[in-house]
Design brief:
Structural class: alpha+beta
Distance between the termini: 52 Å
Shape: elongated
Strand content: 35-45%
Radius of gyration: 46 Å
Oligomer: single chain
Number of strands: 31
CATH superfamily of the largest domain: Copper binding periplasmic protein CusF
Length: about 550
């Protein structure tokens, strides 16, 4: 019995030893297979650790972005609206690719001054110039209502001032004589049934140009009136004089054009860029060199619907009161137009804005000698300040002195980064989808060094073309590098041997670059798993699967 028990225990211990040895051997063998994946795994672990730190608040996240579209920023994590991938956090300790760090002592030597971006409630004043003109709404034309002759002219020169009711010209109207005599005869007649004839004769006098006053005087005096004196209907000046003594005038002929000078127009030329601040009925103050220290007040009467193609200005019609007729047509006026209401806006000193002609840039001071150029959209100018429509936040500090040197330094460093990025070579596996003489379409795996996900994009072919042993649909391993802005070229291509993506052969300075297809077309991400379609899945005995995904 003891012998049987000993044999059983020995067999059990032997089996346990074999199992333990097999587990150790399997673990060692599994470690040998997984060990080549350390680079990819560590990168993934680092990313997960960074996200975990961000979630716990250990690292400050500035914003989230899509590596394919780095210019677009988001204030919270999530899925990219551009690509089928998650947004990547940008941490404060990573710095800005577009920024520049300068030693604080150098900053002090350069005399760099900063100012705060502030919110101001302003009613921006639009300044413009214009010329005084007649108020065309106050113009009166005096015409002859019947033919006749000019016997006497009282107003003899253009631009003579006239008062309302003042006689201007006396006309002899022969046509009136016969009509008046006929009417007087009917008035004196006692025959029955003449009422209709009298009414018709009276109406004829009115149609010949006689006024109700003239007819009433004829009825009271019973005396023919063959002469007519025309009088000024308003106060003003004679803008046009079209009659002289002895002339024959025809019915409808214009004799005088009289303009009221109680109000005048100023035709203001407003720059097209300030059109948003120009509103009807806005208050206006006008100043003229002829009257220093005197202010003429008025309002915007109309904004004409046209732009001068030569000067790129809008024409605003401004109506000014003209007490005493001081404002004369043709005078030059300087105008200050205030908008109808004030509004809040972000402003910076005007000298902080670098205007290149193509864009507007300000240099944001981030502290500790770090500066970052920011593209902004500017509005109008208000005194020494410039409105910022987009690009800055209240409380940020911008450089107002020495910003040109900082901007130049940032541009030089960015150029250097682009040059270094162009020398990096990246190795990755994928599938050749299409091959032409001018481009290759490849569905490739993720490229961690560039923060690219799996996707399908176009590349420029290698200088020597595609090898004969590589056909569309084949699994390939290839090298590529950045050739120019938005262009990527394959430098070597060969059938895949089970190798997966690695980091760049260079320094990895191109991280965060935006991949684009040859010719500038932005790449589109492949569906999940597309790049790895048809790739062999490494087994526990496949020791050559360097970096392959399990």
């Amino acid at each position: 019995m003891r012998t049987g028990t000993a044999i059983f225990l020995g067999a059990a211990l032997g089996a346990a030893g074999l199992a333990t040895g097999y587990w150790i051997s399997t673990a060692q063998h599994r470690n040998a297979v997984v060990a080549p994946q350390t680079g990819a795994t560590s990168a993934s672990s680092a990313a997960n650790a960074s996200d975990a730190k961000a979630a716990t608040g250990e690292r400050k996240v500035l914003y989230w972005y899509d590596p394919m579209v780095p210019g677009q920023r988001f204030d919270k994590p999530g899925k990219s609206p551009f690509m089928d991938m998650q947004l990547v956090p940008k941490y404060a300790d990573e710095g800005e690719a577009s920024g520049v760090a300068i030693d604080p002592r150098v900053v002090q030597n350069l005399g760099v001054r900063t100012a705060e971006v502030r919110t101001a409630t302003l009613a921006p004043t639009v300044e413009a110039v214009g010329t005084v003109a007649w108020n065309e709404r106050g113009v009166v034309l005096l015409q002859a209502r019947t033919g006749g002759f000019v016997e006497r002219l009282y107003a003899r020169a253009p631009l003579d001032p006239v008062r309302k009711g003042q006689p201007l010209v006396e006309l002899l109207v022969p046509e009136w004589t016969a009509a008046q005599e006929e009417y007087l005869a009917l008035l004196a007649s006692k025959l029955a049934g003449n009422d209709e004839l009298r009414a018709a004769a009276r109406q004829r006098l009115l149609l010949l140009g006689m006024s109700e006053t003239d007819v009433a005087r004829l009825e009271s005096e019973r005396k023919v009136q063959s002469r007519k004196t025309l009088r000024a209907p308003i106060d003003g000046v004679i803008a046009e004089l079209e009659v002289r003594e002895g002339m024959t005038v025809m019915p409808g002929a214009t004799l005088f054009r009289i303009v009221n000078l109680g109000t005048v127009w100023v035709n203001a030329q407003v720059p097209e860029t300030l059109a948003a601040y120009l509103t009807p009925n806005a208050k206006v103050e006008a100043r003229l060199a002829a009257y220093p220290g005197q202010v003429f007040k008025g309002s915007v009467n109309a904004i004409l619907p046209e732009v001068d193609l030569a000067t790129r200005t809008l024409r605003a019609r401004i109506e000014l009161a003209n007490p005493g007729g001081a404002l004369k047509p043709g005078m030059f006026a300087t105008l200050a137009l205030a908008p109808s209401e004030a509004r809040q806006m972000l402003v910076v000193p005007a000298e902080a804005v670098i205007r290149t002609g193509e864009r507007n840039v300000v240099i944001v001071a981030e502290g500790e000698g770090r500066f970052r150029p920011v593209d902004v959209q500017v509005g109008g100018d208000q005194g020494a300040d410039t409105e910022i429509v987009r690009g800055l936040k209240a409380g940020e500090r911008v450089v107002v002195s020495g910003q040109f040197l900082i901007d130049s330094e940032a541009s030089l460093r960015a150029s250097g980064d682009r040059l270094r990025a162009g020398s990096d070579t990246y190795h990755v596996e994928g599938r050749l989808e299409r091959a032409t003489k001018d481009e290759l379409t490849i569905s490739h795996e993720a490229v961690p060094a560039l923060k690219w996900p799996e996707m399908t994009m176009d590349f420029l072919p290698p200088p020597g073309g595609v090898p004969a042993n590589v056909k569309p649909g084949d699994r390939i391993r290839f090298e590529f590098r950045q050739k120019g802005e938005g262009e990527w070229q394959v430098t070597r291509i060969e059938p895949a041997k089970g190798s997966a993506a690695t980091g760049p052969a260079g320094t990895g300075a191109a991280a965060g670059s935006v991949p684009r297809a040859a010719g500038g077309t932005q790449a589109t991400p492949a569906p999940a798993g597309r790049a790895a379609q048809g790739a062999p899945v490494p087994s526990a005995h496949d020791h050559g699967a360097h970096g392959a995904k399990p």
